[in-house]
């Protein structure tokens, strides 16, 4: 049977365990999907290819991986001011993330998530990078300020 | 977010549908940031023209240039009629040089479409500067002036060197700012957002353009998007050095502002730059850090046969074109190599009057405008290895085009163009 645990105790949480964390709404809405987690900031222009929704930055740990339809969990945005335009085009091409969870607020990530129209959250009670692992199933309810993580 | 009566009126449609869409986006964006209010701005730089097949097709399907501005500059899926801009607005660099469509691999049809889009931008009142360095050609913010600028290298220059106040905006927020003269009052618009929090002390002289690029690349990688305060600065760096330094720091990290103690306008002292606080951490930059950074930038350069040399990232100053012309005068670009130099069109006019365009072209190089290889994804046919004097371009070209990149001084780059080889260590 699945059980809900305190996020601080998540390190030992096994398959099927449900974890809750709370944060602030950045972009309204509710979405869910598989988590894609990186501890490295993401570049927009020159860092991702919106035609196929992958990271292309040479030295990035996610290079070659797709964020399309995923819940992207990352520290924040870096690089060119083309950040929002890349994810704007990704939204139009159907390759944008399903939802966004990040720690560091910047104008790049604020505008990029706004124009992606996908729910986004920040300012968490527990750092999502320490709780969520790639492959976990994550439900983002930005309106309620609630992230529900189901360990794969 | 708190709105003034004038802002509420714009939101409610008093200025027309496009202004209402612009205000709606600014409210969504401001609330995402957690901003409490908007601030007035009369200085916007951004991109509104259409240079990609994706936008051309969108315009054809959805109703022309108003549809492009509505979607890509206002995030409005409803097509609204776009009025003339209210704020003084400067256009940034493009996805190609309209004067060199063949080199850029762009069809005549795409150039015709772009020209329509440029004419529309001009009709709206956007100045067609078409450069990543608006501060070179007629848009030099004054200290304290609230701006809404895109282009990370221009943003860091505006904040740090000029003392203007801007966040790194995007295509949609500058579109909205052009129509409303508003932008969220957040980050670098506020005194507390401009204070330094980290320290960098120079243990070695940092003098050449290459030196400043390496320092910037190293520093950006460490500080990411925090504000560094640099002490131990010797010779005062000039425009090309500051331009290259900021561009490098905003590529390896997200640096939007730095303070050079004794040089930049909000850093008479380290204490002032930090707003009376102590930096959270201070790191030292010396020969070891410099060498490691050079090695890191050049990490994917293995083949020493250089197919292409690109200069002008950010767009070259007239001083840099003068230097390049002196370095190449009387020499020839190697038959297996190519040299493209990028600058604002207004500066190319000066270069032509001074004879530099002729010198560069006589050597077999090209002086180009409006764009660069990273923006255009255009390089000479068959290029596998490129040499660059810009850490920013060396950061982006391998990622965007899968090229090997060598980074060095302008003189090393000109030598590579003329010999077809990278012979620096």
Report what the structure shows:
The complex is a heterodimer of chains A (152) and B (425). Chain A has 152 residues and is an alpha/beta fold. Chain A contains three helices and 13 strands; from the N terminus they run βββββββββαβαβαββ. Helices cover 16% and strands 32% of the residues of chain A. In chain A, the strands form three sheets. In chain A, strands 1-2-13-12-4-8-10-11-3 form a nine-stranded mixed sheet. Chain A is globular. Chain B has 425 residues and is an alpha/beta fold. Helix content of chain B is 42%, strand content 13%. Chain B is built from 17 helices and 15 strands. Chain B has helices at 5-11, 17-33, 53-62, 64-74, 108-124, 152-162, 171-180, 209-223, 239-252, 270-273, 287-297, 318-328, 345-353, 356-362, 373-376, 391-401, 410-419, and strands at 38-40, 43-46, 88-91, 126-127, 148-149, 182-184, 198-202, 228-231, 259-260, 281-285, 308-311, 339-343, 366-369, 385-388, 404-407. In chain B, the strands form four sheets. In chain B, strands 13-12-11-14-15 form a five-stranded parallel sheet, sandwiched between helices. A four-stranded parallel sheet of chain B has the order 4-3-2-5. In chain B, strands 9-8-7-10 form a four-stranded parallel sheet. In chain B, α6 crosses α9 and α8 runs parallel beside α9. The longest helix of chain B has 17 residues, at 17-33. Chain B is globular. At the A-B interface, β3, β9, α1 and α2 of A face α2, α7 and α16 of B.
